[in-house]
């Protein structure tokens, strides 16, 4: 309420509705002035809430941009993160995803289209399992497959699978791509997998992501589903800014 009253008073001053000398009023008088103005102009409440929301969004954007600059090396060059596309590409896309997110499955198809069109793109995959224990298991299995050199193939197969993934069908898919499932079950407990997941959680929270998929492309922070054409546009912008 205090924040809303402050925003209301700011709006009153902006539109010349506050009394002359309001700056000299006591806190109680300022509060009374704001309440009287609200009663006379109820629309001020909605405007005040909008102003607070805009300020919060602007603050979150500034914090995310600051983190992007300070954490760029970890985002783009983490040796514990899988990489697809051109390993030496001039533009890097970082994708945060969950194997049980239907939008992520669609996003994978769009990203594959982009990679087929633009051979200069490098993709860092940040596995961010936020949709329950089944997602955590799929992520662990996927990251463990790196030890058998089949991450890319397994990742694509998991993303192409219909319906919700669970341990049984994750292992069934692993068999179809030629993974040793017994070894996979051992390897998925490796500490570097915990580290990858924890790093994804930290970065996603700091970037103010609230769901998957979500991307970082150059200086752009982009939550949500993005088409291949829009991805290409963002890649072109990042390339031009280099």
Describe this structure as you would to a colleague:
- The chain has 242 residues and is of the alpha+beta class.
- The protein has helices at residues 2-14, 27-40, 43-70, 72-77, 102-117, 133-144, 151-160, 167-176, 181-187, 191-206, 228-240, and strands at 83-85, 91-97, 121-127, 214-217, 220-223.
- It has a 5-stranded mixed sheet.
- A hairpin with a 2-residue loop joins strand 4 and strand 5 (220-223).
- Helix 1 packs across helix 3.
- It is elongated, with a radius of gyration of 24 Å.
- Mean pLDDT is 87; it is low at 14-18.
Low-confidence segments: 14-18
Residue share in helix: 55-70%
Strand content: 5-15%
- Multimeric state: single chain
How would a crystallographer describe the biggest sheet? 5 strands, mixed
Shape: elongated
Rounded to the nearest angstrom, the distance between the terminal CA atoms is 46 Å
Widest sheet: strand ordering: 1-3-2-4-5
Please state the CA-atom Rg, rounded to the nearest Å. Answer: 24 Å
Question: Can you lay out the helices and strands and say which pair or pack?
Answer:
Elements: H1 2-14, H2 27-40, H3 43-70, H4 72-77, E1 83-85, E2 91-97, H5 102-117, E3 121-127, H6 133-144, H7 151-160, H8 167-176, H9 181-187, H10 191-206, E4 214-217, E5 220-223, H11 228-240
Parallel strand pairs: 2-3
Antiparallel strand pairs: 1-3, 2-4, 4-5
Helix pairs in contact: 1-2, 1-3, 5-11, 6-7, 6-8
């Amino acid at each position: 309420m205090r924040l809303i009253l402050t925003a209301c008073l700011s709006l009153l001053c902006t539109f010349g509705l506050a009394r002359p000398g309001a700056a000299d009023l006591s806190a109680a008088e300022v509060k009374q002035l704001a309440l009287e103005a609200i009663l006379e102009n109820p629309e001020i409440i909605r405007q005040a809430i909008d102003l607070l929301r805009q300020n919060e969004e602007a603050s979150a954007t500034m914090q995310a941009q600051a983190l992007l600059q300070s954490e760029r090396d970890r985002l783009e060059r983490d040796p514990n993160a899988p990489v697809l596309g051109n390993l030496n590409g001039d533009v890097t896309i970082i994708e945060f995803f969950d194997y049980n997110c239907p939008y992520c499955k669609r996003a994978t198809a769009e990203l594959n289209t982009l990679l087929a069109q633009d051979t200069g793109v490098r993709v860092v995959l940040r596995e961010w399992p936020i949709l329950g224990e089944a997602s955590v298991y799929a992520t662990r299995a996927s990251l463990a497959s790196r030890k058998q050199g089949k991450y890319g193939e397994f990742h694509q197969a998991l993303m192409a699978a219909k319906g919700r993934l669970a341990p049984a069908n994750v292992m069934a898919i692993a068999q179809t791509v030629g993974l040793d499932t017994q070894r996979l079950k051992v390897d998925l407990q490796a500490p570097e997998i915990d580290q990858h997941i924890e790093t994804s959680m930290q970065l996603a929270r700091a970037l103010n992501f609230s769901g998957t998929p979500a991307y970082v492309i150059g200086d752009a922070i982009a939550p949500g589903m993005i088409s291949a054409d829009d991805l290409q546009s963002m890649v072109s912008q990042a390339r031009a800014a280099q």
